[in-house]
């Protein structure tokens, strides 16, 4: 018998209708090329060693896991305390549509706070690891890229380049700084910042053969001789910037106590934060990958770090290190022809 015109359609019948906006978006995302999809997945291909997660290439000496991300955010607070609450040593106009590049942005905390502080600026953070948050200010964007390779940035398009705590990550600083010079507009500014992992003492409470000095010496020697990376580039940065073509290069250093031993209230707080970031990730994150790749047993590394912990938590030991701030400017006469 023929069906009546008002008979209900079968449950599996197909009904033609235009796709919803959400379905259109999903369809568009599904149509990504195979190369794009491969790139998107490959950046999450990490390796795990000694209880830590490293970048997929297996070349990184520092992890990118939660312990390292927490340490980076804590270190960011140390820099803010050193800068009296500021984000840069460089004076930047607050009402201009600046183009700012954060090289090796890490967790993105500096770029995000800079985006909030300068709502008219555009902040672009670049890092090899996808560890930045998704919810960010509308004027902040993150890109996954290797800054040691040729930069895919329009020449002479950036007002300010910010490079912080990239020691040990850059095989050729002169090459990186030439890339930064090429990306900057004439008159554009650069700031390179890091904290040295060398310890000093002025009252004799730390001896030259103590555990922390031996650890730091071994660390820098292995990094340089075995892996050909420099974890102490700051003293050479002034010369590299000048050689790259930067003008008005200035170097400033600030004391960073290791622990809350200073009498000065501000330095005591900075020292407390620095000690925490050393104890809760800093020493192990810097050491375990480098020393084991150089042939040490993990147990040897942990034993060495145990001796360092005992020493730096001793209030009688008054050690400190230094934060370096190196700034420079691209000359007006260089124009947009500087090579990337």
TrEMBL record:
Q: Which domain of life is it from?
A: Eukaryota
InterPro entries to which the protein is assigned, alphabetical: SAM-dependent_MTases_sf
What is an example of a GO molecular function annotated in this UniProt entry? methyltransferase activity
Instruction: Report residue spans for region: Disordered.
Output: 1-21
A Pfam family that this protein carries is: Methyltransf_23
Output this protein's name.
Answer: Methyltransferase domain-containing protein
